[in-house]
Structure prediction request, 389 residues.
Amino acid sequence: MRLSRHLLIWALSAFLLIPSGCATTPEKLTPVMVPKVFFPDPPGLPRIQFLRSFTSSKDIESPRSQFDRFVTGEEQRIKRIDKPYGVGIYDGKIYVCDSNSTVMVFDLKNKKFQELEGAKGLGKLVQPLNISIDSDGTKYVADPVRGQVVVYNREDFFVKAIGSPAEWTPIDAVPFDNKLYVIDKKSRDVWIMDKKTGALSEKIGRKAEDETKWLGLPTNLAFDSKGYLYISDTGRFQVVKYDRDGHFLGAIGMLGTSPGRFSRPRGVAADRNGRLYVADASFDNVQIFNNDGRLLMFFGRPGNREGDLFLPAKVVIDYNHLAYFSEYLDPNFQAEALVIVTSQFGPRLVNIFALGRQKGVKYPTDEELTQELEEMKKKIGGKEEKKKE
Prediction:
C-alpha cells in the first residue's frame, strides 16, 4: 500500500506540474501501425516517445525458415538477457552489461545478438556492472567481482585490465579527456586515474574536512559537455556535482517521494543542453532536471506496458543512432536524441526512447518551464497552508 500511495503522489504531482498544451497523440500513425506512447501524458506537450525495447535474440534476429529447421533438425534457440545494468551504444551496436553473465551485444547493422567478442580468456568478465564507451570506441567495463576495469578496443577485443582486486571494488568507470574516473565501492571514493597507464593520481569523495560534502554510497558517474562530473549517490539520496578536479560544487535533490526528490537514484546522464537525467529504481522512472538542478519533467512508470520501467538502472543519451529507429517515430514528432534506459526486470529490459517535440508547436523554454513549475509549487503550497488553518 505504501508504494501505491507514493505512485499516486507522483501521478497527481505530474498532472499539476506539467504545462498544458494540445493533445499529444497525432492522428496519423507510422507504418508500424501501433499506438504511440508519449511522456508527459496529455494535456502536456509530448517530449519523450517510447520507440521499442530489446530483451532477447528474438527482438533483433530474423526467425529461421522452416526449411532451415528441417535441414538442421533444430529449433531456433532464443538467447535472453538475464539482469542488465549498464548500457552503451557505438557504431550500430548496443552493449549491455548482463550482471549475471557477460556483456551482450545487439548488433543493429547485422541483426545479431551475441556476447562481446573479447570477453573471454584474459578478457573474461565475472559480473560486468557498467560500461562506458569513449569517442574512439574504447570500452571500459567495471567488474566488481573480478575487481578490475576491463578495457576493450573499437573492434571489441581485450586490451588490458586496470587495477588490483585486493585494492578496490570498481562499479562504474567513465573516461574524460586523458583521465578515467572510477567509483570504488569499497572506499566510497571516486578514483581519478591515467586513462593509458591506469596510474592513480587522486581520490575524491571523502577527503573534504566538511563531512556534508562526503559521498555516501556513490553509484554511477556522468560528465556533461562542460566537463562537470555528476555522481548519483544512494547514500545521500542525491546527485552530487563536482568539477573534473574533484571540487565539490553542490547537490541535486533529497530523500522524498515527490517530483524532484529521490529514493534510489542510479543511472545519471547529461544531454548537449546540460539537462540531467536520473533513473530512480524506487519510482521506476527517469527525472529530467535543468542545469540548475530544477525539475523539468519525468518519464516512465511502473508496470509491464510499453514505456514502463521496472527497477531502472542506467540511462544513456545518444545523438548518433536515430536513423536505426526512424520507423518507430511518429511522423509528427521531431526527435533530437535517443534516451536508452535499462530495466533490471520485466518483459522489456533495454528501452529505447526519443527526446524531441511535436512538429509545428511552440514549446516553452527550459527557463519558462521551471518558472511555471515554481509558481505552481507556490500555489499548491499556499492551498495546503490554508487547509491547515
